[in-house]
Specification:
The chain is an alpha/beta fold. 42% of the residues lie in helices and 17% in strands. It folds into two domains: 141 residues, Rossmann fold; 284 residues, no CATH class. It has 17 helices and 14 strands. Helix 8 runs antiparallel to helix 9 and helix 9 runs antiparallel to helix 10. The longest helix has 22 residues. The chain starts with 5 loop residues before the first helix and ends in a 10-residue tail after the last strand. The mean pLDDT is 93. This is ATP/GTP-binding protein.
């Protein structure tokens, strides 16, 4: 069984005396249902489970009065003896709650009543064109948590890396000392494996159980096809082909030297006016993440972001690699990255940062100066350069030479190197990106 950080989040939620109904929001197949059910059965005397996608008739439970006693009566009648509502010992799981807007509205009344906990999951909450929206979203009466596929640390756990090894890495980062050779070698291998497997639970479990990359690739491509089916099935009719074209253009977008998203690469003559809403649909579905250009390298980053200049990355690196040509996984595992090497490793770091709930920013000027990522780290605006091998971080050096202009005092280079510091640049192995947690 895969160990997930969301379990700690749910434990903290349950320990809170003023907890509200919680919604696990995330892309399809990232493990929301399993996490909710596993936690529920381990922590409650009674678990009542309703899946609105598999059992659309269950929507009728919420078709009338939203009084909690009335809902319990209807649920008991509909589900039979499997539904036991024991005050303060029952959790109600509402799976795929976006399929039943009235159930979302009912969360307010469960919150006010307080006798029963509610865990809901939602894959396409708020995505344009997906079903009916709730008559009333229970603002202030629900807690929404973004859930992602497995992050790199969870992937390491799944592959048997002990916590003591991660603690050692943290200590090396804190005192800025090189990583011991054995751990360094193991982490480099794990990172390349994560680059091609990613974090979708089914893909990770298959990899851990069999090490069969062909089976992993089939799972990943099935997920990508399911996403494309969602685009055709649920998007507004006029946007269906546009959304799919946006999604399928991502590998071409990232193959460019200047990875700024260009609508013209979707289709000749395409414009933001025609495709911006379609691109937003894919992002809202949790499939992609946006990395915005900054007007200046200075905090606050969000306040200096340029809304119409951005890169787009796949939210899961494994799915991104699966969209490339056959043989790419083999090449990456053997260190042969060819023309896609910068795209692969930038998407890998975007995956790691976004799963840490970091918003993504970069900095590019028309002069050619470009910083792959810019983050808030230890209270400072910090450029992060990503190099597949060693690489000369020219842009970082330029920025550091002019602190009065760029407001930057130190920088980080992520590369296939061991840890060290020189001339204001902290060089870290690529695999240590997940440890940059300080804000």
């Amino acid at each position: 069984m895969l160990k997930r950080k969301i379990t700690d989040t749910l434990s903290a939620w349950k320990a809170s005396p003023n907890r509200k109904p919680i919604i696990l929001k995330g892309c399809r197949q990232c493990g929301k249902t399993f996490a909710a059910q596993h936690f529920a059965h381990a922590n409650y005397q009674s678990v009542v489970y309703i899946n609105f996608f598999e059992n659309p008739g269950a929507k009728d439970i919420f078709a009338g009065s939203l009084n909690v006693d009335q809902i319990i009566l209807m649920a008991s009648a509909y589900l039979g003896s499997s539904a036991r509502f024991i005050p303060n010992e029952t959790v109600l799981i509402l799976d795929e709650i976006q399929e039943c807007p009235q159930a979302r509205t009912a969360l307010k009344f469960f919150c006010l009543d307080g006798r029963y906990d509610v865990i809901a999951t939602g894959s396409l909450l708020g995505v344009a064109g997906y079903g009916e929206q709730p008559a009333s979203i229970p603002v202030g009466y629900e807690t929404v948590i973004d859930m992602h596929p497995l992050d790199f640390e969870e992937f390491c756990w799944a592959n048997g890396l002990p916590e003591t090894a991660i603690d050692l890495l943290r200590n090396c980062l804190n005192i800025e000392t090189p990583i011991p050779a054995a751990i360094h070698s193991r982490m480099r291998s794990l990172l390349l494996e994560y680059a091609v497997v990613g974090g979708m639970p089914d893909a990770v479990q298959t990899f851990v159980d069999s090490r069969d990359m062909s089976s992993v690739l089939r799972i990943q491509r099935d997920i990508v096809r399911a996403y494309e089916d969602d685009m055709v099935k649920y998007a507004p009719t006029a946007d269906k082909p546009l959304i799919k074209q946006c999604f399928q253009s991502i590998p071409r977008q990232l193959a460019k030297e200047n990875k700024k998203f260009q609508y013209s690469l979707i289709k000749k003559g395409s414009t933001a006016a025609r495709f911006a809403g379609s691109l937003q649909w894919v992002e809202d579905a949790g499939i992609t993440v946006r990395c915005r250009n900054l007007s200046i390298t200075e905090l606050p980053l969000d306040g200096n972001a340029i809304e119409d200049q951005f890169k787009v990355y796949m939210a899961d690196t494994g799915l991104f690699v699966s969209m490339l040509e056959d043989g790419t996984q083999f090449d990456i595992l053997n260190g042969n990255l060819f023309g896609y090497k910068s795209a692969i490793f930038e998407n890998l770091i975007a995956d790691i940062f976004s799963k840490m709930n970091r918003r993504l920013y970069y900095f590019r000027k028309d002069s050619g100066l470009e910083l792959d990522f810019v983050i808030r780290y230890k209270g400072q605006c910090t450029p992060v350069e990503v190099k597949a091998n060693d690489g000369n971080a020219k842009s970082v050096k330029t920025v550091l030479k002019h602190p009065e202009k760029y407001h930057v005092e130190s920088a980080i280079k992520l590369a296939d190197l061991n840890l060290g510091r020189k001339d204001g640049i902290l060089t870290l192995p690529l695999y240590m990106a997940f440890l940059l947690t300080e804000r």
